[in-house]
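Troubleshooting entry. The earlier prediction with acetyl coenzyme *A gave an output that would not parse, so I re-checked the input for stray whitespace and re-submitted. Clean input:
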Amino acid sequence: MTDHDVRVLDSSQLRDAHRLFCATLHFKPLEGEHWAQAAQTYHPGRTFGAFDGDAMIGTASSFASGLRVPGGAVVPMAAVSRVGVRADRTRRGILSALMRVQLEDVRSQGDVAASLRASESGIYGRFGYGVATRGQTVRIERRRAAPRAGVPSGGEVRLVDPEVALDGLLPTLFERIAFETPGAVVRWPEYWGSMSRRAAKEGDALVVAVHAGADGDDGYAIYQVTRTGHGLSGKCELVVHDLWAETPESRADLWRFTCDVDLVDEVVAPLRPLEEPVELLFADRRAVSVNEVVDETWLRLVDVPAALATRAYGDAPDVVIGVRDALLSDNDGNYRVGAGGASRTDSAAQLEVDVDTLAMAYLGDVRLSTLASVGRVRVADRDALASADALFCAQARPWAGTFF
Ligand SMILES: CC(=O)SCCNC(=O)CCNC(=O)[C@H](O)C(C)(C)COP(=O)(O)OP(=O)(O)OC[C@H]1O[C@@H](n2cnc3c(N)ncnc32)[C@H](O)[C@@H]1OP(=O)(O)O
């Protein structure tokens, strides 16, 4: 449907939009100083409302961000969030109208990509989003978690007042040590403040531990300790929200530190990278269980020519890939992808994909041959699949590590 009235909101309308969004996720609305703080996190001109007359019935917003792509370049990216449609107006095309307007808008503003974290996995594929990075949950049974002999160690972990850390130390450290992996996301200035507010809302104090090695600070962990149940029979969980390490020493020391916190039964770290070998840090590798592999980044390539031209490729013969995009027709076309780069071509496509499937392969998370094996790639030339796999392969498995 195209007849919904979707407009960009001005600052006087953001509170209604936030209330609407909170209600769709069954959260209480923010009041007083909590709303005043949240209001600061809206980036001007990036929030849309869908209206029925004067009544707002849906909303979608985004933060200005950036995405690290294979090869090291950073492309401008819209971090899409705060999407919701009023419960009495769902399934009438309102989200579809919001998505259409938002995608056209972010493309016209020069964003090469948009990404989001999806509340449900059935929603966003139809708008050209594909799962481009995944994460897994790491659980460590603390009492079994003795370090393995020979694990690197060196330096010191210290606790830092979260307010001080979030205000300067961690943003600087994050920029320096965390922002290298393909899939990493530029954290906008208000990101850090919203992290501490989210923690305050949940009621348990946020703890910041910083690791210093021989050359100074080189890693950090942000966690909360939550207790469930009553008295001594309760269970105590240490939940790691953010952990980045520059060196093997800081990685080992920070994980070990979380396992040394008294009274904790289990250390839980959701959405960690798929290739983080935490179990190898401990003498008893079964102290660590790794499960719940889930989607992390839903990526939408809004400017396919720019996205394909910006990332680096492996060394393999050129492949012509046809891209089909039902919503942003400028992306439609055939692209010659080779070790030297990618550009439009009139040559016939050897492989053809929809834009959501291209997003799944773009950062290197899934091979095109794997996607072909489940019918997501239309294959005209079978030999092209091996070349496409080699071209799109990234040096490191992509991971964002930033939830929004
Ligand atoms: C990035 C984020 O902010 S994630 C948070 C998203 N928000 C929420 O989850 C809050 C609760 N849910 C909602 O507010 C709404 O149900 C929304 C936003 C998910 C969907 O809004 P709607 O206006 O109902 O979507 P719309 O009517 O445009 O649906 C378009 C299509 O998606 C399908 N669809 C919509 N929601 C879902 C869903 N949750 N799961 C599967 N399919 C869905 C519809 O059936 C429709 O399919 P069709 O094109 O084959 O007919």
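This one parsed fine. The chain has a mean pLDDT of 95.
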